[in-house]
Amino acid sequence: MTAITKPSQFQYKPLHKPNQLIYGTGQTAVITGWTIKEAIAKKLNPSEFAVVGQLYSPTRGISLLIRNLLANPHVRYLVILNATKEDRNAGSGTCLLDFFRHGVEEGTSDTGRHCWVIRSSIKGYIDMEIPLVILEQLRRELSVAEADSITQAVSLVKSYGSKTQEPWGKSLEFPMANDVGASGCAPLKPGPRYGHRIEGRTIAETWVKIIHRIKTTGTIRPTGYDGYWQELIDLMAVVTAEPPEFYFPQPNYLPCDRDFIQEYIHQILDDAPVVEGVKYTYGQRLRSWFKRDQIEQVITKLIGEIDAASAVMSLWDVKDHEKGGSPCLNHIWLRVVDNELSLTATLRSNDMFSAWAANAFGLRALQQYITDQIGKRGGIQLKMGPLITVSQSAHIYDDCYDYANRIIQNHYQQIINSEQKQYADPIGNFLIETENTDIIVKHTTPGSGEVIATYSGKNAMSLSRKICSDNPSIQPSHAVYLGIELEKAMIAIKEDKNYHQL
After folding, report:
1. What is the side-by-side order of every strand in the sheet holding 143-147?
2. Full-model pTM
3. Contact at 8 Å (CB) between 172 and 4?
4. Tens digit of each residue's pLDDT (9 = 90 or more) over 107-144
5. DSSP for residue 46
6. If pLDDT is split at 50, 70 and 90, which confidence band does 16 have?
7. What percentage of the chain's residues is helix, strand, coil (to nearest 5)?
8. Where are the alpha helices (DSSP H) in 305-352?
């Protein structure tokens, strides 16, 4: 623990995420949750507040917020705004309030990290490196109030602004056991920068594979938000068999749960008026932003022309270039092929650790809704096809590196092993046998087993190269297995034996 010299006048100096905060010279910190911080700051004089900032995640954000408060003991008041559905769903403000109401206890996070666990129905963690006695002192010294509207929050801040108290102690800083940044990742493996494809049966399985791929080969670069991210460019994720009721693993390792998703789905399917402090919802962009209900448009389009390739919805507004705060989700395509409706979504920027799974569940619900409506209104019964997302910037922020590594350690290999036991390659199968001194390979379709190509030769490597060049989408595990079987056949010929693949 080190002491930091405090200036003679009040000036908030954060240790973490300084560019994500708005500063003043008062003694009140304002936590706006998902409401944009500018919506409150513009209604206050800088002398009335110390800092205004947002809080999205209780598991990631509260610990850094507490560290910043400990570094600024002149802050004596805290106003926590819970004004939006996102606040109620994420529970960040509620969890922070519960810290001041009920304190913490020693425990572990969902990923197994030793930490202080906030006594709350909402999961929230604080770094163990901060002593309990200091946390208890902070709880005693700050006056905390909750607001359910911007108006109420502003009123509370102004009332506190009329008071002045001495700092409750010295500015404090504590070490971080897993300080992450540009050097906070394991050595990276080489890989392409652009164009990646990942496939999984469920959203949960696909998410783990995405995290593994980014952490294995993603490029590390600084962000505009005080830190680093690890990134892949143009990542396509394909979910092939998400069940209608949605699959959540038990215990649930995803960064969202069923209750959150049920609320989140409404933000995609339903229109909603703009509320102060919230720029838009995806549902609003789809239903009314452009004076057209685009969801209704694509339903009507596909009922009238089921094989149309122009059932497109756009969330991007050209004015977003000027106003900022543009949506991450930009375009959605619906296609019907072989009586199967697929949905493809493009996202310009995608937090793959914290947001992608919720995005995928919401889009899958939209896909199911459109499928059902085409059946009800048009009498066309369709199957649910794959969900595809294309993320131009697919990244993981540095404050999630530890969580991501633990997810990979605990779940990745188990998922891969399970898939290998249920092995199936969409390109089909290869049957290998020997005939005199030649290796014969028959390529069959995955369904009927019809032979669609035959290869022959004497050298396993040459055959492997020819088969893989003819079938570039062969799964890597299948290609490896094919090479092993071809090598067995070549050895059998050298030993004057027959070989027939089992």
Report:
1. 22-23, 51-53, 28-31, 77-81, 143-147
2. 0.76
3. yes
4. 988 767 899 999 999 989 999 999 999 999 999 999 99
5. G
6. confident
7. 35, 25, 40
8. 320-323
